[in-house]
Amino acid sequence: MAGLGRIGRRNTTLLSSSFLLPPALLIFQRGITSKLFVGGLSFYTTEKGLLEHFSQYGQVVEAKIIMDRVSDRSKGFGFVSFDSEEAAQKARTEMDGKELNGRTIFVDYAKPKVGFNEGMPIARGPPEPTAIK
Q1: DSSP alpha helices (H): ranges in the chain?
Q2: Per-residue CA distances from 81 to 26, 31, 122 (Å)
Q3: For residues 105 and 56, what is the distance between their CA atoms, to the nearest angstrom?
């Protein structure tokens, strides 16, 4: 039992090292204000291009374009995560309404995901039977 305690503590210290955490967990620890939503993207915008355009405002941790599963094309929006809130704020004010690959983009702070059970239900079940008079 004492051996398991040592293993658990060793894993905890390994997990606390920032180089082992994926970018999504680092963003969660810093807060959502360093993550920006970018809408109105061209189908030809790549994650590398998005990263290059936004990196002039600060250190970009992650640039992600959301893809359609069926067509494997961009859905026209993505997310850019910065290492600081100041860099995200600067990028938001500077890039909002600018043109990127021939399209005007809209930049705002990302909002947290709504859980599957927290939103409006998709189906409510069969209709209630009505009484015939």
Answers
A1: 2-16, 23-30, 47-54, 85-95
A2: 10, 10, 31
A3: 16
Other beta carbons within 10 Å of 5:
9
Nearest by Cα to 78 from 48, 102, 115: 48
Interatomic CA distance for residues 50 and 81, integer angstroms: 11
Per-residue pLDDT of the chain (133 residues; tens, 9 = 90+): 455 444 444 444 444 444 444 555 544 454 556 999 999 999 999 999 999 999 999 999 999 999 999 999 999 999 999 999 999 999 999 999 999 999 999 999 998 876 655 556 566 666 677 777 6
Contact (Cβ atoms closer than 8 angstroms) between residue 91 and residue 109: no
